[in-house]
Design brief:
Length: 208
């Protein structure tokens, strides 16, 4: 069993390609241009509900920018920044504006709706601002099947349907369930089925 656990494939790294865009195609294209140094607008701000994919996109853009030699700074969950951290981000924004860098930031609401310092909120609103739209059930199903395919996992439609009807519907939670199901399938040496998923959901939680 230990060897099986060691052989489990890690979750794929976040990329723009494995992000299911849904109604966010324009935002995704702008991020691609910014992260590869091809955009005139070098400041992008993303906002949306938890689980909408903001952190995924920021990590994907950071990796992409590194591959293309683009100096890019990311700032996630800006609604939680302290006053000192907000001043630092404001100064970083100004520095990047003067020297040609790129900033991609994200929060849970539009820049002017998070009680940030006025100067920082104004800066974040100067660039491109996108609200990430939630995925439809069909798009969530597409994302789960694509993720399963990357892991070499055969995912029956009935398992997808059950997840969407009975479990938390945000994509990170669904992906976590999918990974746990794949791990349990390998450990139990059983194919992924709806009965196996139900068995997994009945397991006691591991103690902290």
């Amino acid at each position: 069993m230990k060897q099986l656990l060691l052989d489990i494939q890690p979750a794929p790294a976040p990329t723009l390609e494995n992000f299911v865009s849904g109604r966010n195609a324009e935002a995704l294209y702008s991020l691609l241009l910014a992260a590869t140094g091809k955009a005139e607008v070098r400041f992008v701000y993303l906002w949306g509900a938890p689980g909408s994919g903001k952190s995924h996109l920021l990590r994907a853009c950071a990796d992409l920018a590194q591959q293309h030699g683009v100096r890019l700074v990311t700032a996630d969950d800006v609604q939680h920044l302290s006053d000192e951290a907000q001043i630092d981000l404001f100064n970083t924004y100004n520095h990047l504006r003067e020297t040609g860098g790129v900033l991609i930031a994200a929060g849970d609401a539009a820049p002017t709706q998070m009680h940030l310092r006025d100067d920082l909120a104004t800066r974040l609103a100067w660039g491109l601002v996108y609200q990430l739209q939630p995925l439809s059930d069909e798009e969530r199903a597409q994302a789960l099947k694509a993720h399963a395919m990357e892991r070499g996992m055969n995912l029956p439609d009935e398992v997808v349907d059950y997840c969407l009807r009975h479990l938390r519907r945000d994509l990170p939670a669904l992906m976590t369930t999918l990974q746990a199901l794949d791990d349990w399938s390998l450990t139990a040496k059983r194919p992924v089925t709806l009965p196996l998923l139900r068995q997994l959901l009945q397991l006691p939680a591991k103690p902290d």
